[in-house]
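User: Please fill in residues for this 564-position structure.
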């Protein structure tokens, strides 16, 4: 595979061998488009790099030679429209095939793409234009996004270019280009964070970022020549870079893209995997929660051999049910928009359902307490990355135009993720949650994820979010907001059954003293539960807490344990 050009060894025989020798080697002036795609276009010109289809049945295949040629033409087109090195351009391309050509073209001339989701509204787009000082917007009209963009642009001097113009330029513009040199530290791409706890931030990645995804594709997703890999993400999210471009092509895999409007059903996804002989699949836990309710026997998934999960912590119940349906063990990975994969379960590590595995090569991960001291096994600490030997390949440069926030996360020789976890005696890491999500009740610390995992084992529970609500005697009380499965009713009897279910399976102080049944949970547009919004809504309602307390009969605190 092409990735071995950037590794010390061709093969690794153990996790320890991988940790010692698996970090990428970075050449000077590295540019993914020139040094990977253009080289592959010469070495393997007819190999299919991109297999694209949409929900209307249209299909397209692109070889590495075609990607190289087309990206040259589009680069010349962008230059003709006045775009130069360092300019920022917002992309709203859903999963259109032109997205991949655009990204490669922009890398070649140093224009900075800002991939964005088509689900944004005018005010979201206006915020991004102002923050990034974008010179242009390139978009696919999916029925609403063009109107939202036009409203956001207003009278600003911002070009609006359609995907149709991009596609036409492939046939009309010259397909050769002179290499534009870049420094490794130059900004290559910017992603806005999903904004689960604050306004979206601009995450700036440099030109060596693609090499960080050797860890993602080769060692976590375990891809190699001949694989057809399907990551579900829309192009507007960093997970697209994780699973649909850089690392996968370095690993020699074909990237499969299924472009669809709206929300894809379990049938849509499974049919696409079967019809296109997908060998490897990656999606967030919310997708697997949907898939486990499907009848897998209706689809020929004989090609599928590997499946991975990231985005939020994986509930063990989902792991077991997917394994029972497919005989495939989900390999969990952990990272952020600010990073590539930092921890994962790889080929040398047996998955533990719910664990995010162990650190990736080149990433010195440490769990620190509030005083910056390492914590022992079994104790919760913040996930931090030591920078004493330099920044790992794939860690972001900083928050674009926000030195104050950058300094907040890069301090005392560490990158502070803001996520907390603990490490077991076998060296596996277990996600606990965001610092802001931890619930402190009567002196105990409760992980929302742990309580959610237990509740998901109950047949009545389809989805759940656990949060804390103010309580005069405990400081915070544990609350579960639950979406029920079909045929279950949110009665007082079920409330007590769910509480007993949690009490029987974990420490008594963790059971939800407040339970609310809802039709749906608030989600970010990337599919993550918005626990912060649930907390805000509960505070605003005020009247919710007392009636629910009366229903479930809160009594004296009968907790017997402390979470040290």
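Assistant: Residues filled in for all 564 positions:
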């Amino acid at each position: 595979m092409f990735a071995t050009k950037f590794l010390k060894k061709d093969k690794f025989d153990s996790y320890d061998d991988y940790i010692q020798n698996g970090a990428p080697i970075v050449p000077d002036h590295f540019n993914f488009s020139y040094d990977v795609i253009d080289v592959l276009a010469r070495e393997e010109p007819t190999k299919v790099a991109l297999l694209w289809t949409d929900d209307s049945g249209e299909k397209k295949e692109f070889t590495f030679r075609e990607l190289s040629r087309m990206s040259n033409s589009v680069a010349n087109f962008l230059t003709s429209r006045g775009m130069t090195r360092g300019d920022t351009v917002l992309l709203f391309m859903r999963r259109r095939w032109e997205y991949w050509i655009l990204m490669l073209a922009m890398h070649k001339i140093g224009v900075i793409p800002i991939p964005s989701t088509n689900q944004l509204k005018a005010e979201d787009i206006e915020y991004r234009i102002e923050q990034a000082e974008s010179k242009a917007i390139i978009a696919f009209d999916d029925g609403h996004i063009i109107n939202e963009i036009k409203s956001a642009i207003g009278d600003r001097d911002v070009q609006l270019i359609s995907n149709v113009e991009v596609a036409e330029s492939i046939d009309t513009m010259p397909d050769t280009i002179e290499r534009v040199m870049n420094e490794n530290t130059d900004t290559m791409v910017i992603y806005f964070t999903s904004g689960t706890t604050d306004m979206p931030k601009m995450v700036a990645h440099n030109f060596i970022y693609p090499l960080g995804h050797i860890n993602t594709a080769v060692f976590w997703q375990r891809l190699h020549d001949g694989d057809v890999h399907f990551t579900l993400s829309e192009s507007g999210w960093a997970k697209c870079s994780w699973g649909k471009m850089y690392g996968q092509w370095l690993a020699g895999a074909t990237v499969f893209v299924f472009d669809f409007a709206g929300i894809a059903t379990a049938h849509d996804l499974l049919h696409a995997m079967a019809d296109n002989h997908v060998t490897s699949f990656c999606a967030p836990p919310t997708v697997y929660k949907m898939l486990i309710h499907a009848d897998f026997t209706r689809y020929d998934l004989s090609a599928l051999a590997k499946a991975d999960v990231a985005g939020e912590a994986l509930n063990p119940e989902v792991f077991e049910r997917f394994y029972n349906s497919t005989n495939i063990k989900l390999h969990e990975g952990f990272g952020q928009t600010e990073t590539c994969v930092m921890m994962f379960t790889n080929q040398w590590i047996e998955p533990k359902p719910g664990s995010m595995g162990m650190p990736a090569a080149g990433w010195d991960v440490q769990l620190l307490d509030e005083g910056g001291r390492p914590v022992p096994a079994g104790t919760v600490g913040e996930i931090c990355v030591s920078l004493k030997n330099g920044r790992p390949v794939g860690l972001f440069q900083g928050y674009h135009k926000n030195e104050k926030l950058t300094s907040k996360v890069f301090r005392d020789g560490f990158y502070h993720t803001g996520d907390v976890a603990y490490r077991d005696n076998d060296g596996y890491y277990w996600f606990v949650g965001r610092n802001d999500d931890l619930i402190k009740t009567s002196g105990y610390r409760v992980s929302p994820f742990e309580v959610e995992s237990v509740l998901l084992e109950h047949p009545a529970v389809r989805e759940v979010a656990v949060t804390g609500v103010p309580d005069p005697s405990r400081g915070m009380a544990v609350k579960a907001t639950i979406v029920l499965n079909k045929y279950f009713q949110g009665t007082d009897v079920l409330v007590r059954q769910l509480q007993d279910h949690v009490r029987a399976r974990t420490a008594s102080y963790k059971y939800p003293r407040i339970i609310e049944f809802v039709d749906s949970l608030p989600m970010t547009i990337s599919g993550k539960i918005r626990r912060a919004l649930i907390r805000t809504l509960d505070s605003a309602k005020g009247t919710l807490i007392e009636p629910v307390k009366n229903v479930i009969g809160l009594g004296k605190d009968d907790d017997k344990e402390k979470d040290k």
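For context: Residues 64-80 form the longest helix (17 residues).
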